Amino acid sequence: MSADMLPLITKALGETVYMVVVSMIISSLLGIPLGVLLHTTSKGQILECLPVNRVVGAVVNAIRSIPFIILMVAIIPLTRLIVGSAIGTTAAMVPLVLASVPFIGRQVETSLREIPYGIVEAAQAMGATPLQIIRKVFLPEAMPNIVAQLTTVIISLIGESAMAGAIGGGGLGDLAIRYGYQRFRPDIMIATVIVLIIMVQIVQFAGNKLAKHLDKR
Amino acid sequence: MVIDLSHIEKIYDSTAGPVHALKDISLHINKGEIYGIIGLSGAGKSTLVRCINLLERPTKGTVTIEGKDITAMNNAELREARKGIGMIFQHFNLLSTSTVFDNIAFPLQLSNTPKDEIKSRVTELLDLVGLANKADQYPSQLSGGQKQRVGIARALASNPHILLCDEATSALDPQTTKSILHLIKDINKKLKLTVVVITHEMQVIKEICDKVAVIDKGIIAEQGDVLDVFINPQEPITKEFISVLLSNELPVDFRNIEIADEPFEDSILLMRLTFIGETANDPIISSLVKKYDVSADLFFGSLDDIKGAPFGRLIIGLDGSQKDIHSAMDYLREQKVKMEVIGYVSRHASSHH
């Protein structure tokens, strides 16, 4: 262990956390409504609208079928447009968000589909509006599942952020490639991997705890 | 009239072609009545009850609730109208992530009722359904009967005039069913609520309903006062439902012997008598024996009650000359007793004899 290692890792860890947290927040804000849209517009649902459902579903599938590393490079012009640059931690968040939103959308859709239709019917019988059903039935009832699934999304974001780091986004992935691989520093490579493992463990543990706390079934 | 269904048709599209779930159904339900709709699964009864609050929109026909045609309403008007119609379900349909209190408060929150008003209303409802000490529990911690009590409290929260019960006791054991039916009857009286009960069990109809409609393959096969339908069922499907409660089997001794239409040597005439209301308490058999030169053997007897009215059934064997037997039968006919002749059997068939 050399003296330069600790500040390097602390800085990289900070960048990774920043990338993951901010992209996760933005992705959730977009992905949860996307999931609600996918579910409620499907057949027999409260806002059934099959054309919208099919188009949105197809776009979601298309984005999800692009490997992250390719998506990252392919949308560089878009990233430039939004952030003003294609390099850097903030720029790395554009592909991260773009990859996570459809992922979250599908996960949320699955959670919503598990809610028995009878509960929705009961709310309709009480005179609830579609928006009230979404806010007071769908989201609270699916929340334990959504939390569990968002945990999975955070973990895959940690992995993707390492990839984004490799093309100039900074963070732990960047550190591992530049020092561990290109400068032959296996100690840094190993330390980075250990930090990533600990991060994932903490996220999974916290996610499980929270999901369990919310689950009253 | 509180609920008026007029010429309701419901046709579903399915991959196998259109399915005619309801065919020209008209029903009139009066204020304060407990109206039972009984049918086998697939008969269309759940579809029919969902047509009352338009959870299912009929393909044709109109639904009038308290004088207002709700089939002509727009979405916002319909939502408002639904607040006057409570509904409870076979599987309760409670929010699993909300406490008992919040489940009951749900309809009030939908109408943005002030918090303190919600609190007092929910407390009152918890008392009404006997769950005052369960306010902070979650549905998963409750028994089936308790869950249905929460369902009932939630359905009553917005002071509806109508309560729809969709197989509300079908997931419950017989004991719990009884207590839930009692509760429904209780609130029907206390709150002058009109109640529509959907069920596949005649027991439920017998226990609480004033009127009954028998639905079969999408049509109303028979309807009327519960007592009338019990005494004089017209359709085979109705008879079948009733036979579950009232066994039509002959006593063991007579099951495997010949039953003749004409009298023969040493025969007695077997008949089934049904007594309703006050006649169930009259000593008809003893006066029959006193008046005519016949003897009457009792082979089977039961006394039940339907919505508080006594309902007795007997199987007797009349013995005597043909002339006396016929006079005795004429007498029975005069007594408002429903008489069904089974046939002549050998008097030695019965070991009781």
Describe the structure.
The complex is a heterodimer of chains A (217) and B (353). Chain A is an all-alpha fold. In chain A, 83% of the residues lie in helices and 0% in strands. Chain A contains 9 helices and no strands. Chain A is elongated. The termini of chain A are far apart. Chain B starts with a strand and ends in a 7-residue tail after the last strand. Helix content of chain B is 33%, strand content 31%. The radius of gyration of chain B is 25 Å and the shape is elongated. Chain B has helices spanning 45-52, 75-82, 100-110, 115-128, 144-156, 174-190, 202-208, 226-231, 236-245, 284-291, 322-334; strands at residues 3-14, 17-29, 34-38, 60-65, 68-69, 85-89, 162-166, 194-199, 211-216, 219-225, 267-276, 295-306, 309-319, 338-346. With 353 residues, chain B is of the alpha/beta class. In chain B, 39% of the residues are buried. In chain B, helix 4 (115-128) crosses helix 5 and helix 5 (144-156) runs parallel beside helix 6 (174-190). The A-B interface holds A 116, 118-119, 121-129, 132, 136-137, 140-141, 143-144, 214-217 and B 53, 55, 79-83, 85, 87, 89, 91, 93-98, 106-107, 109-111, 138-140, 154, 158, 164.
Topology at a glance:
The complex is a heterodimer of chains A (217) and B (353).
Chain A: H1 5-40, H2 50-64, H3 68-74, H4 76-83, H5 89-113, H6 117-125, H7 130-169, H8 171-181, H9 186-214
Chain B: E1 3-14, E2 17-29, E3 34-38, H1 45-52, E4 60-65, E5 68-69, H2 75-82, E6 85-89, H3 100-110, H4 115-128, H5 144-156, E7 162-166, H6 174-190, E8 194-199, H7 202-208, E9 211-216, E10 219-225, H8 226-231, H9 236-245, E11 267-276, H10 284-291, E12 295-306, E13 309-319, H11 322-334, E14 338-346
Parallel strand pairs in B: 3-8, 3-9, 6-7, 7-8
Antiparallel strand pairs in B: 1-2, 1-4, 4-5, 9-10, 11-13, 11-14, 12-13
Helix pairs in contact in B: 3-4, 3-5, 4-5, 5-6
